[in-house]
Amino acid sequence: MAHILLVDDELSIRVTLSEFLRGENYEVKTAEDADQALNMLGAEDFDVVVTDIVMPRITGVKLLEAIKEISPDVQVILMTGEPTVSTASKAVRADAFDYLTKPISKEELVRTVSNAAKLKFSNDERLRLAEENQLYQKNLEQLVVERTKKLRESEERLNGFMESATDSFILWDAELNLIEINPAGLKLLVADKKDVLGKNMLDLLPNIKKSNRYDAYMKVLATGVPLSIDDTVTHLESGKDIYLTWKVFRMGDGLGMIASDITERREARRALKKYANQLETLNAVTMALSSSLALDDVLNIILYQVGKVIPFDSGAVFLREKDGVRVALSRGITPSVKGLIFPIENELFKEIRKTSKPLIVNNVKEDTRFQNWGKSENLASWMGVPLIARDTLIGFLTLDSFHSDTYSSEQAYLAQTFAAQAAQAIENAHLYQTEQHRRLEAELLHDAARAVSSSLQIEEILRLILTQLKRALVYTTASVLILREDNTPELVIGSGYKDEALTSRNASSLLGLSPILQQMARDLQPVVSANVRKLEGWIFVPGAEHVQSWLGIPLVVRGRMIGTLMVDSDQPDFFDEADVQIAQTLAQLTAQALEKARLFNQANQRLKRLSALHAIDKVISSSLDINLTLSVFLGQVLTQLEVDAASILIFDPFSKTLECIDRRGFRTSALLHTNLHIGQGLAGQAALQRKIKYVPNLQEEDEVFLLASKLSGEEFVSYYGVPLVAKGVLKGVLEIFHRSLLSTNDEWLMYLNALAGQAAIAIDNASMFTDLQHSNLELSMAYDSTLEGWAHALELRDMETEGHSRRVTKMTIRLAKAMGVGKEALVHIYRGALLHDIGKMGVPDNILLKPGPLTDEEQIIMRKHTTYARDMLLSIEYLRPALEIPYSHHERWDGSGYPDGLRGIEIPLAARIFAIVDVWDALNSDRPYRKAWPEEKVLAYIREQSGKHFDPKVTDAFFDMLD
């Protein structure tokens, strides 16, 4: 990359031109004047300088001259904005590379700088080559002297080497005449040097012309391509074969040959290779001990590796068992004999056991010991090797050959060494296998315990156990049966069956009759059957026809069988003691987990039932709506008692009948309109006798005919009728229906009674509340009638327009509703409006009935009627919430009213609403002291008093109501 220095006193030109050059990957630096440029040239090397001619103090031409003195090889390009012949001439005379006229285009600048840089690099390379050539010429003479000396020394060393070398060296000239030979070569030819020097190759080696060697030598001579040849010759004196390696190459115009005797090396190599193969095999067996502890893998490695050093056509490994030796692995034998048992007293094995050494038979057909060996017609040679580990015979290795006299004592020795390693590997694999089995069993039990403890759902626990069982035992199918307290099947979970659900249902319906399970429940001991077809009492379950061997383990909790773990195989006599032991351990874990789950589910069910009772209590205490209460109640009955349907019948003490008020779980409209007399039907009997009526099977109950038509399509089987009694009084009947046989216990019945008690309380509370509501309504109506009577009496005394109280009350209620006042507040507004002037009963007649205007003293007395109303009504708790209107209806929005001078929203809303209605009715009615106003005048007055007398929002609502 060229190094460029750009010199110009104008910043914009420096920036623009430097960007042009950097864009072309030049390394660019800038200077603003000649002084700065000279300093930079003294500090670092530049290839090209681009400078302006016109600059302050030192011109570009002066700078160029200074640069040539400092660095003559730097190429300088001059720039000017005022081109003249004079400036161009100066540039040329100053030895500038080129001359550029501003403004300068990017292409022109880049091209000129590129050419200058190339010239600079060319000059630099020319100078470098000149210096190197001068140096080379200076050292050339010395180099020739040194190399000549080294060549002479090398030739002397070569001659010495040739004389002492054990390899044969022979040199031939261009016509293949022998011109040099060393002592080793003379020894090979068995000749003197004087007899062979100058002789032609064809004379010395007359037979070479007949072979292709001569042509090969001539080719080397012609092409110069060296040749390497392995050869076998017969030594002329000893008569022994000698193995040689010839290196043939062109040397000058002639041919050179070097012959190396490799006879000893070749024999040593063969012996070494053989030994290496043996070591490799032994090492491979040793590696097998560490690389694999799986028995099958170890046996395969043994047969594979032994075949590398000892030939065989077929072979086998026999391992000892109780009464014989079993073929653990075979190779080359068709069909395979793996698994066959041979007697340990076989004559061949017997002899090997006696000597503890290999046995070789190189003529099998003439050896009578092979008469019982099996298919041996192709065998010709055989060798058996004992496998001994820790001084104990654990088996045999046998090798077969289809050729006679195959095996030697040397091979037997090797095989014995090999067998020692193999026996140790097999023993280690056995130990590892045993340890693995124990570890797997422990791991299985640990995993099984952890798995079953992770769940409290019975079905999930059973499936987890069957999953863990599959890891430990080989079986075809398996299942777990859970029993009820009466020892009848409750649940069956299967694994491995074609249709697990169907087979489980079949087993659940059939196994309750099994005498084998009854025996297990009595004895609490496992049952193992080698062939179930010979097992007395065996029940064939559809879907499990494949079973031949069977293993049953009881699941025992506190001395009682709660179920059975069952394992099946489609092979006879399949399960052994180890299988029974593992299954028993898993069965114990299963029983513990099931008991834990049962206790948890029982506690959880109790908690849910208590929660359900609490929920029903809350509904009873928070609501007196009998329909809501019974709806919640029936939902809890179906959930907690796990039944299909239920209904509530309410007892009417006047008609002595039971009427259905609510029901759940029915498919049809059955019992929706039930109306039974006491003693009629199952519910009527439960009500009459005040006792629970239980029917296990409705199909077998004579009295069910009354329900037969009503329950058609429901398919109910079991029934419970429970009388609902509160405080000794019959309130109704709870009916429960289930579509299968209902299995219950004491705890279930206790909970049923608790639910019935709550239902009776709910019905009793609802009845009392209904009666109380009737009483309250009658009392409230009586109160309101009394208040209306008081209002009417007050109108008669005050001589107001008849019906004034009723009119203002009605309109006040109407306006309050329009303003969104709630129902409860409307009741008190109604009563307050009726009694708005009740305080006038305390005003003397002479003032109350005065036809003319009242004096100031009389006005004070008259205004006390609001206080009188408060004092009269405050002591009556029933009317206290209605005081806002009688006490505050004369207050004004602007605070000018009485009795307290309240302002704005300080005035109760009820009083603000009533005030505008009271004025509207008064102005629309004739009074003793004036006539009624026209309606337009009344409305205008009310509009004018908004914000003064009346609340503006109430005023707007009032006019909206009138519209």
Structural Rg: 63 Å
- Strand residues, percent: 15-25%
Spatial shape: flat
- Please work out how many helical segments DSSP would assign: 30
Helix and strand composition category? alpha+beta
Provide keyphrases for this structure.
single chain; 963 residues; alpha+beta; 6-stranded antiparallel beta sheet; 30 helices; 27 strands; flat
Structure description:
The protein is an alpha+beta fold and 963 residues long. Helices cover 50% and strands 18% of the residues. The chain has 30 helices and 27 strands. The strands form five sheets. Strands 13-12-11-16-15-14 form a six-stranded antiparallel β-sheet, with helices on both faces. A hairpin with a 2-residue loop joins strand 9 and strand 10. Helix 13 packs parallel to helix 17. The longest helix has 59 residues, at 106-164. The chain is flat. It starts with a strand and ends with a helix.
List the helices and strands and how they pair.
Elements: E1 3-7, H1 11-22, E2 27-31, H2 34-43, E3 48-52, H3 60-70, E4 75-80, H4 85-93, E5 98-101, H5 106-164, E6 168-172, E7 178-181, H6 183-189, H7 193-196, H8 201-204, H9 213-223, E8 227-234, E9 241-251, E10 254-261, H10 263-291, H11 295-309, E11 314-320, E12 324-331, E13 341-343, H12 347-355, E14 359-361, E15 381-389, E16 392-401, H13 409-453, H14 458-472, E17 477-483, E18 489-495, H15 500-510, H16 515-523, E19 527-529, E20 549-557, E21 560-569, H17 577-622, H18 626-641, E22 645-652, E23 657-664, E24 675-677, H19 681-689, E25 693-695, H20 705-708, E26 718-726, E27 729-738, H21 746-798, H22 804-818, H23 823-834, H24 845-848, H25 856-863, H26 865-874, H27 884-888, H28 909-923, H29 935-944, H30 952-962
Parallel strand pairs: 1-2, 1-3, 3-4, 4-5
Antiparallel strand pairs: 6-7, 6-10, 8-9, 9-10, 11-12, 11-16, 12-13, 14-15, 15-16, 17-18, 17-21, 19-20, 20-21, 22-23, 22-27, 23-24, 25-26, 26-27
